[in-house]
Design a protein that fits this description.
The complex is a heterodimer of chains A (356) and B (263). By secondary structure, chain A is an alpha/beta fold. Chain A is built from 9 helices and 9 strands. Chain B contains 8 helices and 12 strands. In chain B, helix 1 packs across helix 8 and helix 3 crosses helix 6. The chains are: A alpha/beta (356), B alpha/beta (263).
Chain lengths: 356, 263
């Protein structure tokens, strides 16, 4: 009988024992083989859920060409930029937790659909339903909300025109949308700002086919304007703060992330110029034993971010330029910069009842 | 009572007023000024113009001297402890002349209508909140606010602060003025908004520095509503006022010093 079969000559990384079980988890290598070249001159756009806020600044620190098409005005002190939504993503879309959020911003930016007129008025101040925490004290007028939304749309259009790589971090499948008009909000109206109205606002837990189709359409729209655009998807390892589904939040989280993960993989398989970076697995997979979470088991620690980004950059650089990975002793490097991530979704925790 | 008047080029109007005061009301006032460069861009603003050394106010660079004829000023700095009160003239960011970098030329609010024929780069639209945040933050870059900050920790007496004068209305006649080229006649309203915003910013800033600070109102509150200083107080430079204006400010100070509840 022949001893040759498809598993005979697979590399060590194909086997759990040699690639995972027998290794210090921090010594695991080659978790990602980039599908296409990303160099320091590649113009890169980043957007997505809270976790994506780490990527742009990390790219900048490493000398990569992170495209910021909506930069802070030069007179605004650096310490205040984050409060006004600058520096987190390539433009001030705010967190985009679901693919439909990205799609609608692209549609508005390219003029495929008109921007909604909805504005939330609270105590004489005005809030943008699509990025309710953007302005610390709310906007002075509805006109201001619309005007600044147009500015961001212009920035998104510019990003589409100029970028070569679009990095999008998928966050959630759960969303709240306008029943009649169909657009989605980043958070449930009434939780951060605005007012919840059952007749107008509807919970929706996106399923695989919808998510896949939404992203196909979005990528297509982007490539109609910029045919050379490549896409890199990641899935946020940050669990849901709360679920509006009937499931336990742990179960709801696994559904959400699993579905998004499957969508990302299938896009990679089905489309040219699309890749997936496994930041989700690097934080959540069993070998890592949750060591990269803070005590709330939700927020990713600075070490975790550094671990993810080191893996990202190591995969991009040549072997002789690879930077040392996080020490197996997990000593916190003094250079790690803790990035304060702005996350409206985390604010939902305020509504959790205290256990009696 | 010895009074120290210190600040930027705006001190000039107060000095001329004192010199021309036949009643010699201001003989006990000393005048000092620190002239910083015109045409400075945001990137070249030094981190600090002044500091306290051995209980004296000194400049951090030889480029920026304290111009003074007072005996309380020497190579070791200005001995501000000799004064019963100090007037800082004037707080506010520098003039938005065409050649200066200023956020008024680079940013705009949603309801500011751009002139269709403007060939200046379109200012970036920002919110009122962000604009005001910048106006507040930029105060710390000025030599006069830095004088206030230095004195706040080292001087126990009262400090009056004169706000930067509103530009003279003659500037509206200058068709080449960048703000006019951007917004046409709406430049009036924009200047009014800016100075009201800046006045509020200076108030907030001084409130944080301490109770010893008093921000003087404009000599006529109507000026803040219009956004301009009347022509009769102007000079050939719409950003610097004459001795008559200086006299109004000095009179404001004198009234406060005479008030038994003050100090």
């Amino acid at each position: 009988m022949s001893n040759s079969h498809p598993y005979s000559n697979l590399p060590k990384q194909a086997f759990w024992r040699t690639a995972v079980a027998e290794l210090n988890p921090l010594a695991m290598k080659d978790l990602w083989q980039p599908r296409f070249s990303i160099t320091k001159s590649t113009a890169i756009v980043t957007c997505g859920s809270c976790f994506a806020q780490h990527i742009g600044p990390a790219l900048l620190r490493r000398g990569y060409h992170w495209l910021e098409t909506e930069p802070a005005p030069r007179f605004l002190p650096q310490a205040k930029q984050c409060a006004y939504g600058y520096g987190a993503f390539s433009f001030r879309s705010g967190n985009l937790y679901t693919p439909l959020q990205l799609k609608q911003w692209v549609e508005w930016a390219l003029g495929h659909t008109a921007m909604p007129e909805e504005v939330w008025a609270v105590d004489g101040r005005f809030y943008d339903p699509f990025r309710p925490t953007l302005e610390p004290m709310g906007f002075a007028s509805a006109e201001e909300v619309y005007g600044l939304r147009r500015v961001t749309c212009d920035a998104i259009r510019k990003a589409i025109e100029q970028a070569e790589l679009w990095v999008f971090t998928l966050g959630l499948t759960e969303a709240w949308r306008h029943r009649q008009l169909g657009y989605v909000y980043p958070v449930c109206p009434g939780t951060v700002s605005g007012e919840y109205q059952a007749k107008q606002h509807q919970f929706h837990n996106f399923r695989y086919p919808e998510l896949y189709q939404t992203l196909i359409e979005t990528l297509s729209m982007i490539r109609q304007l910029n045919s050379r655009m490549q896409f890199l998807f990641t899935v946020s390892p940050v669990p849901l703060t709360a679920t509006a589904s009937p499931n336990h939040v742990l179960i709801a989280t696994e559904y959400s992330k699993s579905t998004l993960r499957a969508v990302a993989e299938d896009l990679k398989l089905d489309m040219e110029g699309v890749d997936y970076f496994p930041s989700y697995e690097m934080i959540t997979a069993p070998p890592f034993r949750g060591i990269f979470y803070e005590s709330n088991l939700r927020q990713v620690s600075a070490q975790g971010v550094e671990f993810v980004m080191n893996n990202f950059f190591n995969a991009l650089t040549h072997a002789d330029e690879k930077e040392a990975n996080v020490s197996a002793d997990l000593i916190l490097p003094s250079q790690i910069e803790k990035v304060d991530v702005d996350c409206e979704e985390a604010l939902l925790d305020a509504y959790a009842k205290v256990n009696s | 009572m010895k009074v120290c008047v210190i600040g930027n080029s705006q001190v000039g109007a107060l000095f001329k007023a004192a010199q021309g005061n036949s009643a010699r009301q201001y003989e006990h006032y000393d005048f000092h000024s620190i002239l910083v460069a015109r045409n400075v861009d945001i990137d070249s603003i030094p981190p600090g113009y002044v500091e306290i050394k051995n209980n004296r106010l000194v400049t951090t660079s030889a480029k920026h001297k304290i111009n003074s004829q007072s005996s309380y000023y020497s190579d070791t700095g200005l001995d501000f402890s000799q004064y019963s009160a100090i007037i800082v003239s004037a707080c506010g960011f520098w003039a938005y002349r065409n050649e200066n970098a200023h956020w008024l030329f680079e940013l705009r609010l949603a309801d500011w209508p751009l002139k269709a024929d403007s060939n200046i780069p379109t200012p970036l639209m920002v919110s009122v909140g962000l604009f005001e945040q910048i106006t507040y933050a930029m105060q710390s870059h000025t030599v006069t606010m830095q004088i206030c900050e230095a004195l706040a920790t080292s001087y126990a007496g009262k400090i009056l602060v004169q706000p930067w004068p509103l530009p003279c209305e003659t500037i509206l006649l200058d068709q080449s003025w960048k703000l006019r080229r951007l917004y046409g006649d709406y430049a009036c309203s924009i200047s009014q908004f800016f100075f009201a915003s800046q006045y509020k910013a200076i108030q907030q800033y001084l409130a944080q520095l301490g109770e010893q600070f008093t921000l003087l109102p404009y000599p006529d509150p109507d000026w803040l509503h219009s956004g301009y200083t009347p022509e009769r107080f102007g000079t050939s430079d719409p950003w610097h006022m004459n001795a008559d204006y200086g006299a109004l400010v000095l009179q404001q100070a004198q009234r406060l010093f005479s008030n038994s509840h003050f100090g």
